[in-house]
Amino acid sequence: MKVVVLNNYEELSYYTSNIIINQINNKPNSILGLPTGNTPLRMYELLVKKYNNNQVTFKDVITFNLDEYVGLDKNNINSYHYYMYDNLFNHIDIDKNNIHIPEDVNKYKEELKKYDIDLMILGLGQNGHIGFNEPGKEFVRQTHIVNLSKNTKEVNSKLFKEDKIPDQAITIGIEDIFKVKKILIMASGKSKKKIVKQLLYSDITPTLPATILLLHSDCTLIVDKDAIEES
Fold first, then answer.
1. Is the pTM of this model over 0.85?
2. Residue ranges making up the domain that contains 20
3. Is residue 182 part of a domain?
4. What's the total number of domains in the chain?
5. CATH number, residue 30
6. Is 67 a catalytic site residue?
7. Listed residue (53, 64, 82, 154) closest to 118, CA to CA
8. What pLDDT does 231 receive?
């Protein structure tokens, strides 16, 4: 795993958005894996800005989102479907037929089998989850419905508006993440310092799911200075 340390969240967001732009410009029909949450928000703003400045077109891009809550209507303001359209898809020229967000776990498994994802962007949960692959006794390989951990619900409930956070989510499995050609993990802020250190210095273990990516052939951890221990 490569590690890139940048000065702050803004630089981290620019750096990641530029990799995505270069990927699309080099391969206009790129297949992307996309995250939600607080960390990628500025990255999405920059992608929209660069689209508006004619630096990129998304018309042939295909996207797969990592996860979605179970039981939320896609038009619910707390759903990841709503998040993605509000922060990115409504503002670019992507073909809506090329957007994939989990709704039915079995259908999503079948859709993922049809494509090889070129580039996936991941966040890093404070308990080491990637997507919603939570700590456990084993790595869950396939895309599945997961019971969200107490830690994840506590952290994510701060982002919730109006409704109670669901107990379950659909998430792309570890195997589908691992077979992606290129992976970027974004981690920003002091709240991520502990888990970043654990990721870099732990053994590979399902109790810290992100450690599986230490074995990936092209995975880069992109952090700002607040998220990494001083050397």
1. yes
2. 2-226
3. yes
4. 1
5. 3.40.50.1360
6. yes
7. 64
8. 46
DSSP at 218: T
The DSSP letter of residue 203 is P
pLDDT at 163: 73
* pLDDT tens, residue by residue, 39-51: 999 999 999 999 9
Is there a catalytic annotation at residue 229?
Answer: no
Is 231 among the domain residues?
no
Q: Is 22 a catalytic residue?
A: no
Q: Measure the CA–CA gap between 228 and 231, rounded to whole angstroms.
A: 9
CA 72 to CA 84: how far, in whole Å?
Answer: 14
Per the listing, tokens 């989102």 go with 65
Name the active-site residue from 81, 100, 133, 134: 134
Q: What is the pLDDT of residue 24?
A: 98
Q: Give pLDDT < 70 ranges for the chain.
A: 161-162, 230-231
How do 62-65 and 31-34 pair as beta strands? Answer: parallel
Are 190 and 155 in contact, with CB atoms under 8 Å apart? no
Catalytic residue list contains 127: yes
DSSP run (H or E) holding 172: none
